[in-house]
Amino acid sequence: MTQARSHLIPDGSSGTYHCVQRCVRRAFLCGVDHYTQQNYEHRKAWVEQRIALVGECFSVAIYAYAVMSNHLHIVLQLNPAATAAWSDEDIAERWVRLFPPRTDSAEARAFKQNTLVRNAARLMQCRARLGSLSWLMKCLAEPIARQANAEDHCKGRFWEGRFKSQVLCDDKAILAAMAYVDLNPIRAGITKRLDRSRYTSIQQRIKHAKKTPLALQQAVNPVHGTLIACLPVRLSDYIELVEWTGKQVRPDKRGAIPKHTPSVLKQLRSNEKRWTTQVKGIGSRYWRVVGDMEDLLEAAKRLNQRWLKGLGTAMALAKID
């Protein structure tokens, strides 16, 4: 039975999540529709631009994303408490960027911001929403749906009503989810190279590294967001890890990339089999929580359940040397 997301992710709580939002009927509403031959590829750029905008407005660190033809993935960290340090004017400015006035002009935006600042109750509500996962996904998806429906001269749903969310309990789970997300176009056979993997965070990271080579020796930073939250892995090691994982996860898939074992697995205290099993599990073997066996048991206890999907995978990983 479907449960409210708030049972697993209470309002106001911080955490790191892997979210998936799918189009209705899994139709190709963002790519090339193979039935009508209509090309909607340009809508992927809309989604990518919107991801950047929500990253600038919410108290979030966006680690990875991939915009596919019929769904999108995003790995992010939220810290609702960070909004307490933002001024009233800052909250109003961010909110108006997300929801501009119908007559979008500098004067109209200034008027809406000033009106919001004077409304203490409404401002408090907006402050809370800028730290909410549900509101972030709403602000990401809904404008794309409106824009697509306007282009198609139609009404109705563009995205499924609920998005899937997984709680990522530790750095290994976060990196596994990031690798899973960044490899989506490789697994789908859309491209053979990460630097040509359009509308993904890995392509953005590679482009940045080419412009700023020193970035390769720095820790993995969010690609978008207002939070400063680095992962304990160098960018060069992460790119190497994603390239290697692409071959391990689907060695028979067209578009798989060459095999070489990355040294960063030792840093993560993992081995080849454990790492690839966890990355594969992101899409199918886990459900609402990704982490060690103790993490899943604790989450199940909070939900008054005996177990969660993924517990068997976590127990098997604990036995792998």
Brief account:
The protein is α+β, with helices and mostly antiparallel strands. The protein has 14 helices and eight strands.
Strand line-up in the sheet with most strands: 6-2-3-1-4-8
Total number of helical segments? 14
- Strands, count: 8
Report the span from N to C terminus: 36 Å
Helix and strand content put the structural class at alpha+beta
What is the 3D shape?
globular
Main β sheet profile: 6 strands, mixed
Percent strand equals: 5-15%
Describe the structure.
Helix 3 crosses helix 4. The strands form 2 sheets. The protein has a 6-stranded mixed beta sheet, with helices on both faces. It has a two-stranded antiparallel sheet with strand order 5-7. The protein is built from 14 helices and 8 strands. The protein has 321 residues and is α+β, with helices and mostly antiparallel strands.
Topology at a glance:
Layout: H1 5-8, E1 15-22, H2 42-57, E2 60-67, E3 71-78, H3 88-98, H4 106-118, H5 120-129, H6 133-152, E4 164-168, H7 171-182, H8 184-187, H9 201-211, E5 219-220, E6 224-225, E7 231-234, H10 235-249, H11 264-267, H12 272-283, E8 289-290, H13 293-302, H14 311-319
Parallel strand pairs: 4-8
Antiparallel strand pairs: 1-3, 1-4, 2-3, 2-6, 5-7
Question: What are the key terms here?
Answer:
single chain, 321 residues, alpha+beta, 6-stranded mixed beta sheet, two-stranded antiparallel sheet, 8 strands, 47% helix
